[in-house]
Amino acid sequence: MQDYDDPDGDIAVSDRVYLWRRDEGKPRPADAIEFFATLVNDDPHGGAFQYRSVLTDVLAWVLEKAGRARFSDLVARELWQPMGAEHDAEVTVDGHGNALADGGISATLRDAGRVGLLALRRGRARDARVVPGSWIDDTIRGSPDGPWAFREGDGARGYPPGAHYRNCWWVTDPQLPLFQATGIHGQGIIVHVPSQTVVVKLSSWPDVLNRSMCHATKAAAIAIAAALLESGG
Fold this sequence. Notes:
Layout: H1 10-17, H2 32-36, H3 53-67, H4 71-80, E1 90-91, E2 105-106, H5 109-120, E3 124-125, E4 128-129, H6 133-141, H7 146-152, E5 164-166, E6 169-173, E7 178-182, E8 188-192, E9 197-201, H8 211-231
Antiparallel strand pairs: 1-2, 3-4, 5-6, 6-7, 7-8, 8-9
């Protein structure tokens, strides 16, 4: 698991590249693209699951090349506007304009909820198709070796059998289904399909990751969903 407390680790370097942390005399890559080139794989492809925030940043860079537009413009055109967002979101960038896609997006609670509703409704918003339903289905179903890789790696603690990570979503229970988008310091979007419920939580926990609080948050969302199912709401 990536180390948020290592002052010389990849996360600390990334924070300095994206101008979230002062250099304090330490050398750093000039921008995100140069930073990507310094990274190496921990293990061969196909092994145990290892979550790495920077992979989402690399994905954003690939999207920019494929879509021939900046990440923020792509998100606005393909997602934010079609889903009916009320407000603009803000995207952190480095000194050369490269997006911090893994955790540098600021949005209102209601618009974060719209992202959850989009996933809940298999990619539809305002009677329009925004995301292919097959992509949502693939996210929930996962790959055949997904649960094994998850269990053997970073998902070993605190997740039930069958849980996996797919398409930037943490799938807690693919049978219900129950899945979530999880950020650091207590941010999260939880989608509970049987009750047609989306729970969004905005937080400022002092800890980057607090497993007991994460589990309590998920338990609270499940309790809300169960109460709604019981009441028929």
